[in-house]
Design goal:
The protein is an alpha/beta fold. It has three domains: about 10-70, Archaeosine Trna-guanine Transglycosylase, Chain: A, domain 4 (Roll), CATH 2.30.130; about 85-190, RNA methyltransferase domain (HRMD) like (Transcription Regulator spoIIAA), CATH 3.30.750; about 210-400, Rossmann fold (3-Layer(aba) Sandwich). The chain is about 25% helix and about 30% strand. The strands form four sheets. It has a seven-stranded mixed sheet, with helices on both faces. Helix 5 runs parallel beside helix 6 (about 240-245) and helix 9 packs across helix 10. The longest helix has 17 residues, at about 315-330.
Length: about 400
């Protein structure tokens, strides 16, 4: 990088190759892509191509990703807006895009990082609690501009930072869980199509609840009537609650967290649902035990955690997914359904389907793919940013005869 004439402290210039990628929608760039200007300190910058034409705004950072694009911003003099103006416009646009999902008791992904031109920021709203994650140094340093805007524009009485993410270390940020505004709410209850889920903003996984699986939970509810359901890696039993709401005969929840299973039982009891059973243990071991007991289920949900958190882990992750899917398929009753998922963005949709296909090889029945799903519409996928399509869900059916 060099300090060429005309390149100020709030300007970065990309090389021709990187600029071409930027025009095609790529959102992330590295220090080697920058030919003029400095990537430190973390700040909002105007990005130029090799001919010093405007490519919009970006944020710099000290981590592996040196520049993240933030979309176009009108200015005849190619100036950079102040933080308050930038976040006000981007946050308001994100809120407007989800206006129909902001009712009382609702849960919604309010800001989805790069898809909302706010890289390094995720905001989930659970009724009157907003939970955010900051994974870039610039966003982390700008919470004094972000939080007041959210409080002013949204009906929230609590804002929580769930920054307990290892990825923050790459930006030189510490992991933390903190109350940023308002009163501490240990739990809040969501209403998802009549099913109530308890969210624990300070203790739950991620930002408290898996909002992205709303389409799959709706599908499970649709399929569940009269069926015996097995919910693997169930967490708080979200899929099981929807299955029981849809008329399932029974639902067996398996997870390693006794606290999560206790919450599943409490939520089921609050609904007066019958037929919920929980088991605390390793899912791989429990699957083998169920197989040895000749158990069968009409509907199985397999929603494991991300096995591949880096490209180096993909091969091992695929072995895990293959084994799990094969064991689950062997527990299906005739004509039963398997809803199988991966949230590993390093495992592409094509690779995931190939792994699942391999899991079906040699089974004494046919397996058909009935449907493909992903995250809900509040988790938009950028076609130029494959990492944003992290959640893949397949509906399979066993066919006999």
């Amino acid at each position: 990088m060099t300090a060429e004439a005309g390149i100020g402290t709030q300007t970065l210039q990309l090389n021709a190759k990187a600029a071409g990628f930027a025009r095609r929608g790529r959102p992330w760039f590295f220090a080697d892509d920058v030919v003029a200007g400095e990537v430190a300190p973390a700040r909002l910058v105007r990005v130029l191509d090799e001919n010093r034409r405007d490519l919009g705004l970006g944020i710099t950072g000290p981590g592996h990703i040196a520049l993240r694009l933030c979309g176009p911003w009108p200015a005849d003099d190619l100036s950079v807006p102040d933080r308050e103006a930038f976040f006000a416009r981007r946050l308001q646009t994100a809120i407007d895009a989800r206006a129909g999902r902001l009712g009382p008791g609702h849960g919604v992904r309010l800001v989805h990082g790069e898809a909302d031109w706010l890289p390094g920021l995720v905001v989930d709203k659970y009724d009157t609690v907003a939970v955010l994650q900051a994974t870039s140094a610039f966003v982390d340093a700008s919470l004094d501009a972000i939080v007041p805007f959210l409080v002013e524009r949204l009906d929230v009485d609590s804002v929580v930072a769930r920054d307990d993410l290892p990825v923050r270390q790459k930006e030189g940020l510490e992991q933390r869980v903190a109350l940023l505004h308002g009163r501490r709410r240990e739990q809040v209850v969501l209403d998802e199509h009549g099913v109530h889920h308890t969210v624990r903003p300070f203790a739950g996984h991620k930002t408290g609840f898996y909002l992205d699986q709303e389409p799959a939970r709706a599908l499970v509810r649709e399929l569940a009537k009269g069926r015996r359901v097995l919910d693997l890696f169930c967490y708080q039993g979200g899929f099981s609650l929807h299955a029981l709401a849809g008329g399932a005969q029974s639902a067996l929840c398996i997870d390693q967290s006794e606290a999560a299973l206790e919450q599943a039982r409490a939520d089921a009891q609050n609904h007066e649902f019958q037929g919920l059973e929980t088991r605390c243990g390793d899912v791989f071991d429990e699957l083998r035990a169920l197989r040895e007991a000749n158990a069968q289920f009409d509907l199985i949900v397999l929603d494991p955690p991300a096995f591949a958190k880096s490209r180096r882990e993909v091969e091992g992750a695929e072995r895990g997914y293959r084994d799990l899917n094969r064991q689950a398929l062997r527990l299906l009753a005739p004509n039963g359904y398997l809803v199988t998922c991966t949230c590993s963005h390093h495992v592409t949709p094509v690779r995931f389907e190939e792994v699942v296909r391999q899991a079906t090889a040699g089974l004494p029945f046919r397996t058909v793919l009935r449907q493909r799903l992903g995250a809900g519409p509040d988790h938009p996928v950028l076609l130029a940013h494959p990492e944003s399509e992290y959640l893949k869900v397949l509906l399979l059916q066993r066919l006999d005869g």
